[in-house]
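Structure first, sequence second, as always.
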């Protein structure tokens, strides 16, 4: 089959597009700005226009396109193809996506949550090595995730499966944006690492290095990891705390589902093998013995392309 598939990663700042072969080879990609004016009323029409322009520029017709898949923030009705509650896009109310794009472009369309799309991408072409059972955890401003069992996304009864960031890890911890106390994303996101750094800073004897930066209110997640890698004692302590929470969470996910891989991605994962080793040490301590030797932690490998690749794969399922 020589037909192409199109993947779309819809974000609050940019919309990423990719054209792939049906076996997952990314052949081209481009980006446009996300126009959220007037409650995002122009977003879908901008997507349609951009795809139509690409087809014309590359001498393609809809006969050359197998279908289009999209990952979007918000609450997704993946059967109806609608989105609501994507507040960073201005989409508080339900938005018709599938019906509009299929009508305007004339090819099949599929949509799912953006974290789920990234999970599919990593499972298919990335670190998941096309294995049937993969859990993806994305560490960014918050913590998202996607669960794939027997090559199928787990959506749950109302589409809320994979909310790994809202697993309870510390009942006496920080208040989460969801209203609960002690969710994983309050300690294992970019924001969460800074939360931890602020929490313990007055108990630490050091006065320079990361401690000084935190007290000045200038520390970011990247700086915490950079200081830790350089041997800073406070930085190391904070990263160890972070790894404790994430490692234990990974062990519980693995104990419950025993996937082939748990893949860790997102901006925080840029800390690389240094981060993975610390998380893995905690994971191995708490994982069930059989799980310990059959579920492996890995770093994501697709970077910013995971979303468009996974979105494209939606149309193949």
């Amino acid at each position: 089959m020589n037909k192409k598939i199109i993947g779309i990663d819809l974000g609050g700042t940019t919309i990423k597009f990719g054209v792939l072969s049906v076996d997952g080879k990314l052949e081209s990609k481009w980006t446009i700005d996300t126009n959220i004016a007037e409650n995002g009323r122009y977003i879908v029409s901008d997507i349609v226009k951009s795809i139509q322009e690409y087809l014309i520029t590359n001498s393609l017709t809809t006969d050359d396109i197998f279908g289009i898949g999209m990952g979007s923030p918000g609450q997704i009705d993946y059967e109806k193809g609608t989105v609501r509650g994507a507040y960073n896009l201005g989409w508080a109310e339900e938005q018709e996506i599938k019906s509009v794009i299929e009508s305007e472009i004339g090819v099949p369309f599929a949509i799912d949550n953006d974290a789920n799309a990234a999970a599919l991408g990593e499972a298919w072409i990335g670190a998941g090595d096309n294995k049937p059972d993969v859990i993806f955890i994305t560490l960014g401003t918050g913590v998202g995730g996607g669960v794939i069992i027997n090559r199928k996304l787990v959506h749950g009864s109302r589409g809320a499966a994979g909310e790994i960031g809202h697993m309870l890890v510390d009942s006496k911890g920080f208040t989460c944006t969801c209203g609960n106390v002690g969710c994983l994303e309050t300690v294992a996101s970019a924001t969460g690492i800074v939360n931890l750094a602020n929490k313990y800073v007055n108990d630490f004897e050091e006065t320079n290095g990361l401690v000084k930066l935190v007290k000045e209110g200038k520390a970011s997640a990247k700086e915490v990891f950079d200081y830790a890698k350089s041997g800073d004692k406070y930085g190391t302590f904070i990263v160890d705390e972070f790894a404790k929470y994430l490692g234990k969470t990974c062990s519980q996910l693995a104990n419950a589902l025993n996937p082939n891989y748990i893949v860790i991605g997102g901006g925080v994962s840029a800390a690389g093998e240094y981060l993975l080793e610390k998380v893995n040490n905690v994971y191995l301590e708490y994982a069930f013995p059989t799980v310990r030797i059959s579920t492996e932690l890995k770093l994501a490998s697709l970077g910013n392309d995971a979303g468009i690749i996974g979105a494209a794969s939606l149309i193949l399922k």
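Margin note: The mean pLDDT is 94.
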